[in-house]
Design goal:
mainly alpha, Serine Threonine Protein Phosphatase 5, Tetratricopeptide repeat, about 0% strand, elongated, Sel1_AlgK
Amino acid sequence: MSNKNLLIFVYMLALVFSIGACSNNDSSPNRLNTNLNDPQIKTVEKYENNIDLMKNAAQQGDVVAMSLLGDKYLKGDGVEKDIKKGIAWLTNAADKGNSLAQQSLGYTYLFESTIQNDSKAFFWFKKSAEQGDGISQLELANMYANGSGVVKDLKLASQWLKKANDNGLDTPSALKYLQK
């Protein structure tokens, strides 16, 4: 599987887990959750097939639109593929605290061969993980366990795995392995 396809697969998998792992009572304004009345879910639905509306909203400062537009540019989905524009939009949303944009930047820096940078991937996963994103917590655990972008530290890997588990991701077997 090519790096591009792997990035898309992992990102989509992470997005599915992120939506499922978020609780319905999460009050963070930058997190998607399973509450279908959540404004971000409505925003995603509104922009899903309308690039012009998405671009306009992103230019007006809508962080969800920025994040979605960044992903569109990374993939070349509905727009001409442009990694620099994709990263710029994602960074803008991530700097405003959007955890999914932070997570997407983490995966982009982890898997996009033209800009691969484990330290930057770690930075963005950590930002998202600190907001309680279980997928990013799992990625941090993996990076600590393998020393990718950070000094190898099995104790911190175990702590982040526990946080991911506490956020609804099934990680007990990995926790047992790290605690040996």
